[in-house]
Specification:
222 residues, 74% helix, mainly alpha, 9 helices
Length: 222
C-alpha cells in the first residue's frame, strides 16, 4: 500500500505541474508544512533510533556526511527538491543532471520508510512539490508528454525501490544504523531548507507559520 501511495504522490505532483503557470506561488505552504513535518519526524523518530542503537560508530560523522551528500546532490538537482527551479529559456536539452540528482535523492528517501514509522507521510507530502518541479522543468525544456511520463514513472519508482531494498537487502540491514545516520543528515539539510527557503523573499508570515506549526503538531501526535 505504501508503494502505491508514493507513486500516487508523484502523479499528483505531475497534475499540479501541468495545471499551474508559476512554480513558486502555489507551493510555498505545502513546502513549509512538509519541511516542518519532515524535520519533526526526523528529530522525534529517526535521530533517537540512530543514537540509541548498539552500533559503536561516530554517529555525528555519518550525519554530517548526509548533509554534505545532500549538498552534492543539489549541485545536480539545482535545488528542485525544495522548490527552486533555475532554467535557461534557451536550453532545451534533457536535464540529465537534475533527473539523476532527484532520483538519487528519492532513493535515499525510501530507506527509512521500511521501518514502518510515520516518516512515510512526510515523504508523501514532500514528493508532491518534488514531482511538480520536475514536471515544470520538463515542460520548460519542451520535453514530449511521452518522455515526461516515462521519466516521472522512473522517478516515482525510486522511493519505493529504496524501501524495498531496505526491507530485503542483507547489506543494508547490516549497516542500517550507519545508513540511517546519513539519511538523517540528508533530511536535516532538506527540511531546514524547506522551512527557510520556501519563498522568494525569505519572509515568514502568519499563514506560513500556521502551516509550520501544523506540521510539527501532526508529527508529534503521530
Amino acid at each position: 500500500m505504501q508503494y502505491l501511495l508514493l507513486i500516487l504522490a508523484v502523479a499528483i505532483g505531475y497534475i499540479i505541474g501541468k495545471s499551474i503557470s508559476t512554480e513558486q506561488k502555489y507551493l510555498t505552504r505545502i513546502m513549509a508544512f512538509s519541511g516542518a513535518f519532515l524535520l519533526s519526524l526526523t528529530v522525534l523518530e529517526i535521530l533517537p533510533e540512530v543514537y540509541n542503537s548498539d552500533s559503536n560508530f561516530p554517529v555525528g560523522i555519518f550525519i554530517l556526511s548526509g548533509v554534505l551528500l545532500q549538498l552534492v546532490l543539489e549541485l545536480f538537482s539545482q535545488g528542485a527538491e525544495h522548490g527552486h527551479m533555475h532554467h535557461d529559456a534557451s536550453q532545451q536539452n534533457f536535464p540529465w543532471l537534475l533527473f539523476i540528482g532527484l532520483s538519487i535523492h528519492a532513493l535515499l528517501e525510501g530507506l527509512p520508510i521500511a521501518e514502518g514509522n510515520h516518516l512515510l507521510w512526510g515523504i508523501l507530502i514532500h514528493k508532491i512539490p518534488e514531482a511538480t518541479m520536475l514536471t515544470l522543468f520538463f515542460t520548460h525544456t519542451k520535453q514530449s508528454v511521452k518522455h515526461t511520463l516515462l521519466c516521472l514513472s522512473i522517478f516515482a519508482l525510486m522511493t519505493p525501490l529504496g524501501t524495498f531494498l531496505a526491507e530485503t537487502n542483507p547489506w543494508i540491514k547490516v549497516y542500517q544504523t550507519q545508513i540511517y545516520a546519513v539519511v538523517v543528515g540528508v533530511f536535516l539539510h532538506l527540511s531546514t531548507t524547506l522551512l527557510f527557503e520556501s519563498n522568494k523573499n525569505h519572509h515568514f508570515n502568519i499563514s506560513k507559520i500556521l502551516f509550520i506549526l501544523l506540521g510539527i503538531l501532526l508529527a508529534f501526535l503521530l
